[in-house]
Design brief:
Strand order of the largest sheet: 1-2-3-7-6-5-4
Largest sheet: 7 strands, mixed
Bound molecules: biotin
Shape: globular
Distance between the termini: 40 Å
């Protein structure tokens, strides 16, 4: 496998990998529009677990049509091609698995990340990782899923778009230290496979739910939930066994919220 100066060392990544099928094939791009787009394009022909990894993205995609700032050599920008036999409504469970894997990897490296359900990881009140799960269809059926993960690893404050500086941060800004991207990536992928396999084989996500509850930023907090046409305030009670957010609204109604149905904003500030 080739080694790229100043870029990610792919041999080093391999040295950290302990997986059977995740990242056993890596497409590495020095610069790309979006790893998610590339993974969508090639996913039909590739084996499950293949990843697309880039040093820089010039069209990094975020949720809800936003962009994802992806400066060169500072972050981790990757997409994992997955082929689970699931219906689209189970997609949010894969996002939850990725969020749990990210928290476990950060924990291994001494950082206590919090999950802002469903797809953000927060460290020190700033978003440091985002997950964008997408589906590629073929003849109206799911062909493959793309698990896009962006981690702000060694970004300095100046690398973060000015308008996001009160909301977004990086592992380096939080810890004051450079983080080894290869080690972090290996750990994320190892945890992801461990949590994803039982889901793929038996739809089992209890371990991911347990991690999501333990690291939840929202449980016990008041949040504002934005649907397509309305906005409601409620208290988050739990994450249920399906990975949904259980919320008690002002009128005492209790509902389980699906990922993708709503966007959630904290009342007090940035989230
Ligand atoms: C979000 O929080 O809005 C999701 C951000 C996801 C960003 C990652 S970076 C790698 C992959 N490729 C993309 O274009 N987006 C995802």
């Amino acid at each position: 496998m080739a080694e790229f100066s100043k870029g990610l060392n792919l041999q080093d990544i391999e040295g950290h990998l302990d997986t059977k099928f995740i990242a056993r094939k890596i497409y590495y791009f020095d610069r790309i529009d979006s790893t998610n787009l590339k993974a969508k394009e090639i996913g039909g022909e590739e084996v499950e677990g293949t990843i697309v990894l880039a040093e820089e993205q010039i069209g990094g995609r975020g949720r809800l049509g936003r962009t994802w700032a992806s400066p060169r050599g500072k972050g981790l920008y990757l997409s994992i091609i997955l082929k689970p036999d699931i219906s689209p409504d189970k997609l949010s469970q894969i996002t939850l698995i990725a969020a749990a894997a990210l928290c476990k990897a950060l924990e291994d490296m001494g950082m206590e990340g919090k999950i802002k359900w469903p797809n953000d990881i927060i460290l020190g009140n700033r978003k440091v990782c985002g997950i964008l799960t997408e589906i590629a269809f073929k003849s109206n059926k799911i062909n493959h899923c793309i698990m896009g993960i962006g981690i702000n690893v060694n970004l300095d404050r100046g690398d973060i778009p000015e308008e996001l500086r009160d909301k977004a941060g990086s592992l380096k800004i939080f810890t004051g230290k450079e983080i080894k991207r290869e080690e972090l990536l290996g750990r994320v992928l190892n945890h992801f496979e461990r949590l994803y396999l039982p889901f793929k084989e038996e739809r089992e996500i209890s371990k991911s739910i347990e991690i999501s509850r333990k690291h939840s930023l929202l449980i016990g907090r008041n949040v504002r939930i934005r649907g397509e046409s309305k906005e409601e305030i409620g208290e988050v009670l739990d994450i249920n066994e399906k990975g949904e957010l259980v919320v008690k609204f002002k009128d005492s109604r209790i509902e389980a919220i699906f990922s993708g149905e709503v966007s959630i904003r904290g009342i007090d500030g940035y989230i």
